[in-house]
Design brief:
By secondary structure, the chain is an alpha/beta fold. It has 15 helices and eight strands. Strands 3, 4, 5 and 6 form a four-stranded mixed beta sheet that branches. It has a two-stranded parallel ribbon with strand order 1-2. Strand 4 and strand 5 form a beta hairpin. Helix 4 packs across helix 14 and helix 12 packs across helix 14. The protein starts with a strand and ends in a 6-residue tail after the last helix.
């Protein structure tokens, strides 16, 4: 901000003092005149002034380092800068079915921690209006919502109620053990916020059936479940859309296999806004409810996970590591003890080709194991790992991989045990998270109900 500089008014000389009796005694005046230094000749004064200006110019700091020019108190003063805050939200979650494995951790939870840490500091930028030239200082704040999506966990029927209860708490504890900080992120259980179920029903009535029939995951999973497949499996993409849209999340970390579901979420949001958030009747309903008459639902963008974070099965390099695989040997569970991790890695499927190398489509198992080796050593470069393993055989490489995985997971397992040993702390985190999530979700649900014309709750 430019500091204002007020110039002092000039001193006006008078030809004769108004009160001569106040003049000093002539003797004192002579003494003062004698003490005054003699004025230097005019030529010397001009030379000194020129030398000073030359030196000042030579030692003048660059423009970027100089203090801003002082302005006089006039119309030249800088206009105040307007300020506003832009809140952006990230939402994601993992199903509490079975045990969370290395693929869930590297492909989702670990990346949530990275996002939390990298986006925790507000981003400040300046926007300039092209027409008026007015500047606005925008502070961008990111809010993170990470939930245990237990409602999605019951789509495979029948489910084990006791196992669901334990896996829900275990999943929440693993979020915290992995580094999700309740002080910077909202951690909660999906079913603890009833707005998820209610908005899902409202969106069901908006979504055409043929949109859901195109979902690839439904086709694949229903083929495995046969005639006993439930409506929940067919409909769960709408619940996923409700999860995202409730929080106005504009960014969603997803794997490539979830991109189709995110596109469906965008389509549902656009259809809802087109059908219910336009025209004067909508504006009147919003005014009566004390709500802004803007579109209710935000269309989210995908944040595709980092390259190499996709972890494949230990028994088939072409299949994703999955909780639903009947063989426990196909996955490295986060809570597997070190001996079991070493055993699974020692028995995992490999090929008979010499050497170990990346980027060979004909060797999916080699690519998968190298990706895991790199992911659990984030401080190492791809080049250093390639140099290390280039001339190794599988017998020499597997113990290195096992050591790296165990070293990476042991601190996490220790933190997990500490969280589970303090159930009061875990319950408190989930209760506070549900309360914070419900506050945001309730506003969206209220706006959606108003847009659709439901009677207000009193």
């Amino acid at each position: 901000t430019h500091r204002q500089h007020l110039s002092h008014p000039p001193h006006h000389r008078t030809t004769a003092p108004p009160h001569r009796h106040l003049l000093p005694h002539p003797a004192l005046l002579r003494t003062a005149m004698e003490r005054r230094p003699r004025r230097p000749p005019l030529a010397a004064t001009l030379l000194s002034t020129a030398m000073f200006l030359r030196c000042a110019t030579a030692f003048r700091p660059p423009a970027a380092a100089r203090a801003p020019t002082r302005l006089r108190a006039s119309s030249e003063a800088a206009a105040p800068v307007a300020r506003r805050t832009l809140t952006r939200r990230i939402l994601s979650g993992v199903q509490p079915t079975g045990s969370i494995h290395l693929g869930n951790y590297l492909g989702a939870i670990k990346q949530w921690v990275d996002l939390q840490d990298s986006l925790s500091v507000p981003l400040v930028r300046t926007e300039v209006n092209e027409k008026t030239g007015a500047a606005t200082e925008v502070t961008e704040v990111t809010e993170n919502f990470y939930c245990v999506v237990d409602l999605h966990a019951i789509t495979a029927q029948p489910h084990d109620p006791s196992a669901l209860l334990e896996s829900t708490r275990a999943s929440a504890a693993l979020y915290l053990a992995a580094g999700i900080d309740p002080g910077r992120s909202t951690v909660f259980v999906q079913s603890h916020v009833p707005a998820h179920s209610e908005l899902a029903w409202l969106l069901n009535c908006v979504t055409p059936m043929n949109w859901l029939e195109r979902m690839i995951q439904y086709k694949e999973k229903s083929a495995k479940q046969g005639d006993g497949v439930g409506v929940g499996l067919f409909d769960y993409p709408v619940l996923m859309a409700a999860d995202i849209l409730l929080y106005g999340a504009d960014r969603v970390p997803v794997g490539e296999d979830q991109r189709q579901h995110l596109e469906l979420t965008r389509d549902i949001a656009r259809r809802f806004n087109d059908q219910y958030c336009k025209g004067n009747p909508y504006k009147k309903r919003c005014k009566a409810a004390g709500l802004p008459s803007r579109p209710v639902l935000t269309e989210p963008e995908a944040m595709i996970v980092k390259e190499g974070a996709r972890v494949m099965s230990l028994t088939d390099g072409n299949a994703k590591m999955s909780k639903s695989d009947p063989s426990d040997a196909s996955r490295l569970n986060i809570l597997d003890p070190p001996d079991l991790l070493r055993k699974k890695i020692g028995r995992c499927k490999t090929d008979s080709m010499a050497g170990i190398a990346w980027d060979d489509p004909a060797r999916p198992e080699a690519v998968n194991l190298l990706n895991i080796y790199a992911a659990v050593q984030p401080d190492r470069s791809r080049e250093s790992i390639a140099d290390e393993v280039r001339d190794l055989n599988w017998g020499a490489f597997k113990p290195l991989l096992a050591d790296a995985v165990v070293a990476h997971l042991e601190p996490l397992q220790q933190r997990y045990r500490e969280v589970r040993e303090d159930p009061t702390y875990l319950d408190g985190v989930l209760a506070e998270g549900a309360s914070a999530a419900e506050e945001v979700a309730g506003k969206t649900l209220h706006a959606a109900r108003t847009a659709m014309g439901f009677a207000p709750r009193t």
